[in-house]
Specification:
HTH_AraC; transcription regulation; transcription; four-stranded antiparallel beta sheet; alpha+beta; Helix-turn-helix domain-containing protein; about 325 residues; six-stranded antiparallel beta sheet; about 40% helix; AraC_XylS_family_regulators; single chain
Length: about 325
């Protein structure tokens, strides 16, 4: 929504509000009144999914936002803010001060009444609205904060991303299971630990491990043991989670490294030799890389590069065609 487009203000914010009320509902979370500045400059992209009494919003705001000074309105919900960029400042209940959630931090609290808030421009954040039933007793009057790279938040983030992409295809039983997994992980964030043998969490654990592996593909330390350590589970639990979705941890890592190496072979700015690619993507040597690549793709790296016309992109650095690395 962009209220700054010619003739759009204040309809941009009005359209956002109507969409929220129609698709999410005031029964889940009542949008507050916003300041005049926000109404005049409201540039926000969002992806919101409702799962029973919970809502997950991925927000990207180019403009700053601020509520009216006294939004009012009774609520009974648990709110979680996971901020990747920018900052989100939350008003507290009477007698308690403001709290700012900066980039790289999360905050979760029970909300009994709408309070003022504001966000910086260029905000990227997840906002979760959760039913209070199982979470309110765990929270009480506490506000839980911590880093977004904690194991529990990594799993929760992986699950919410999966929900956005799959919820439209889920039947009633799938929605129920997804809702249960979401609540379990929200409880884990509140408690600072999760039940690593809970079967409903296997898909989220698998996705979180994949997300982490994708960011560390060139890291020589990347292994099932490292992933398990970062996600605060046992290696056995990690293997069991992958098995539940029909995969293996080491196979996923190897295939992703091969995919990235294949992309590098055809990149205009590439030109790495076979041995350099092998070293970068943590294969034992160029012969091992070539054998593994051919087994997976049916061609050696040089054959693949030539078939795509990429072999001539780097005259100064080679993709060897006759050396021992290609003999396998």
């Amino acid at each position: 929504m962009d209220s700054t487009a010619p003739g759009a203000a204040p309809r941009g914010l009005d359209a956002f509000r109507r969409g929220w009320e129609t698709q999410i509902g005031d029964d889940v979370f009542q949008l507050p009144a916003f300041s005049a500045d926000t109404i005049g400059d409201f540039r926000v992209k969002g992806n919101v999914t409702k799962v029973h009494g919970a809502a997950i919003a991925d927000l990207h705001a180019a403009s700053a936002t601020r509520t009216a000074d006294a939004p009012g309105g009774d609520q009974d919900l648990v709110a979680m803010y996971v901020v990747q960029r920018g900052a989100w400042t939350l008003g507290g209940p009477p007698g308690r001060g403001e709290q700012t959630v900066p980039a790289g931090q999360f905050l979760v609290r029970h909300v009994g009444r709408l309070t003022a808030f504001e966000t910086t421009a260029h905000l990227t954040a997840k906002f979760l609205v959760l039913p209070p039933g199982e979470l309110k007793p765990l929270l009480g009057n506490r506000v839980i904060t911590g880093p977004t790279d904690s194991a529990e938040i990594r799993l929760l983030t992986a699950l919410t991303d999966m929900i956005h992409t799959t919820v439209a295809d889920l039947g009633p039983a799938g929605v129920e299971a997804t809702h249960g997994a979401l609540i379990e992980l929200a409880k884990a964030v509140t408690k600072g630990r999760f039940d690593d043998v809970e079967p409903r969490l296997a898909p989220a654990l698998t996705q979180a491990a994949k997300d982490l592996a994708d960011r560390r593909l060139a890291d020589p330390e990347l292994s099932p043991a490292m992933l398990a350590r970062e996600l605060n589970v046992s290696v056995r639990t990690l293997h069991r989670a992958f098995a539940a979705v029909g995969e293996q941890v080491a196979t996923y890592i190897r295939h992703r490294r091969l995919q990235e190496a294949r992309l590098a072979l055809t990149a205009p700015s590439g030109g790495l030799s076979i041995s350099e690619l092998a070293a970068h993507w943590q294969f034992a040597d160029s012969s091992h890389f070539t054998r593994t690549f051919k087994k997976h793709y049916g061609q050696t790296p040089t054959e693949y590069a030539r078939s795509t016309g990429a072999a001539s992109l780097s005259p100064n650095r080679h993709l060897p065609g006759h050396g021992p690395a290609e003999s396998a």
